[in-house]
Design goal:
Elements: E1 8-12, H1 25-40, H2 59-68, E2 74-77, E3 80-81, E4 89-90, H3 92-101, E5 106-112, H4 120-130, E6 134-139, E7 142-145, E8 148-151, H5 160-169, E9 174-178, H6 198-204, E10 209-213, H7 220-229, E11 233-236, H8 240-246, H9 248-258, E12 270-271, H10 281-290, H11 295-301, H12 312-327, H13 331-337
Parallel strand pairs: 1-2, 2-5, 5-6, 6-9, 9-10, 10-11, 11-12
Antiparallel strand pairs: 3-4, 7-8
Helix pairs in contact: 7-9, 8-9, 8-10
Length: 373
């Protein structure tokens, strides 16, 4: 727990960023370098030599930084269907390993497909049959396939709607779509990462929930109106944890912007995610517990309703309550399931990355005493 609050991380990964995994080096390299810059830009003690991070991360290493080195309690694994990389970047096999090896910690996984590859509906069925507790469908708005880049829209009745119908048939009630964060210099049709096309899907499938992954990172005004207008649209905070640790004042502006239309009600459909291992989850968690809006932000941002100061109850909802409601988890049962397991803390948190092979890649090591959590 973080300061007594249970923490569910909505996105966990284990990327293979090795050169040998690249299917389209001209595009894959840009993603590798973007990822390296995220690592290098972290606060002291968490900043890693970027080139040393371009490796094949194991599921165990992701588990270690999440559950041993931070106060994250449980997480949901997301495979990544970006086929600039041979295994998709974070493979389905790793999702299977994570949820089967530590089912009480990796409490579910998304089925993750590229709808423009052959037989996407069959692939959905295959992953659901294989997975331990599939909780939703994860999509990207661009098909990335070995040198080809093809955008598609969430409101396309021929491409998107059959996916949602199949998800409903398979018992997947949550659809997560990567938006707001363009993927390197590859062409994306100009507007693929704008979330406005989510409204057509949400309107046509009101019994499903649609999460905008990386919501708030860009297209803040569009996202705020979607949150206000559609009760089945949610915001997944992955990468916003990086904004919080790297540019905290910007984080406040972006979050206030997300609340600018619906006000406090929008806080009921925003949930925590870090995308670890693509950054260490601990500094964002600690910064979030300390975060407060400035008076100027609260006075300036609301359109119809005031921007509320974040309370402990708001933070509790974002860290666990909202995503538990989205996926039907019982937080008390989740907490009981991890009691006294191999990741349970019996003292200070370890120094960041000290449980992984990257312990010598930290650029600004913390004094040992600073590892106390």
């Amino acid at each position: 727990m973080q300061d007594g609050l249970f923490v569910i991380d909505g996105v966990a990964h284990a990327f293979d960023m090795t050169e040998g995994n690249m299917a389209s080096p001209e595009y894959a390299e840009s993603l590798r370098q973007l990822q390296a810059s995220f690592f290098a830009g972290q606060p002291a003690g968490y900043d890693l030599e970027g080139e040393k991070t371009l490796r094949d991360w194991s599921v165990e290493e992701t588990a270690d930084i999440m559950f041993r080195e931070s106060n994250t309690d449980v997480a949901i694994f997301h495979p990544v269907p970006i086929y600039f990389f041979k295994d998709g970047y974070s493979s389905v096999a790793k999702a299977l390993e994570a949820t089967k090896r530590w089912p009480n910690r990796f409490i579910g996984s998304y089925v993750s497909i590229d709808p423009l590859r052959p037989d996407p509906l069959g692939e959905m069925e295959r992953q659901v049959e294989m997975m331990n507790n599939p909780v939703g469908l994860k999509l990207y708005p661009v098909s990335y396939n070995e040198g080809t880049v093809t955008p598609w829209r969430m409101d396309d009745p021929k491409i998107g709607f059959p996916l949602y119908e199949k998800a409903r048939e398979l018992g997947l009630r949550s659809v997560a779509i990567h938006k707001s964060l363009p993927m390197g210099p590859s062409p994306s049709g100009g507007n693929a990462f704008n979330p406005v096309d989510v409204e057509g899907a949400a309107a046509a499938f009101p019994d499903l929930n649609f999460s905008i992954v990386h919501g708030g990172l860009s297209f803040v005004e569009e996202t705020a109106w979607l949150l206000a207008r559609f009760p089945n649209i949610w915001v997944n905070f992955e990468t916003m944890n990086l904004v919080l640790t790297m540019r905290p004042s910007v984080f406040g502006e972006q979050l206030a912007g997300l609340l600018s239309v619906a006000g406090e009600a929008a806080l009921e459909r925003i949930y925590w995610a870090t995308g670890a291992m693509n950054s260490h989850p601990r500094p964002g968690l600690e910064a979030f517990m300390d975060f407060q809006f400035t008076e100027e932000q609260m006075a300036r941002k609301g359109i119809f309703f005031p921007i509320p100061q974040l309370t402990r109850e708001h933070k509790k909802a974002i860290l666990s309550g909202n995503i538990a409601r989205l996926h039907g988890f019982d937080v008390d049962k989740l907490a009981a399931g991890i009691k006294d397991d191999e990741f349970t803390h019996h003292g200070p948190l370890p120094i960041p990355y000290s449980t992984t092979p990257l312990k010598d890649a930290v650029m600004t090591p913390l004094p040992e005493a600073a590892g106390v959590g």
